Description:
With 246 residues, the protein is an alpha/beta fold.
Amino acid sequence: MAAGKDKKTDDLMDQASKALVRTKYFEAERLCEKAMAMARQDHDFELMARIALPLQEARRQRFQLAIDVGKIKLIDKPVAEDVKVDRGCYLVQPPQVGADGRRLRVAGLQQEKPVAVLCREPTTALKQIPIVAIGTGTTIRTRIEPPKNPSKPDMAWFVAAFEQLGDAALESLDPSLPGPRKVDALLDRLDALPEHEKLHQALAEACRAAAKDATLHEEAVAGRLAAKIAAKEASAKSPRKTGVGT
């Protein structure tokens, strides 16, 4: 990474750390996201791994602020782009869809209101509830057991549903993906479900693995180049054989 970009990213993370101390979680999240995007553009996976943890903390705190309200608002009407939201938890229900849930979550970020948004689909024949989260690059979906009281789901069920959705996102990850593609797949999943802590931890781990792979590749390339140079130098020093006419 160029020195100028390196300093700019360091400055962003310094500001993010200060924002966390001041409990400005939305500001800290935006700063971490910007630094993460810059580091990814520069293929600096080691830096991405370091950014993942403060990003996780900022999101964990705002999610907890939403959960602390202790009530779940059921949404069964269309969510407009200019929707105004209040702090708290939202369960988007049919006939509304995952896109409505995403609009609610984005509105919360833009308005700096701590919200936790879950979207469910119609109950299956097996009496399970599909839950879904939509990002710009992926859709996460899994099936879970319904709440004991469908008309008034409790907070324990709501939080557990978030965890199960994030676990499904991790389970759907192709383990054979090469390092950078695995990093991008996890970034896509976090765009759909940014509140899941294990996704952040998996991202940090994937970034460290990608950084190690990149270092090993660079060392291998450097080794092959050094071998070629050594071979050329040895060839140049070897006495040339000359033919003798008869």
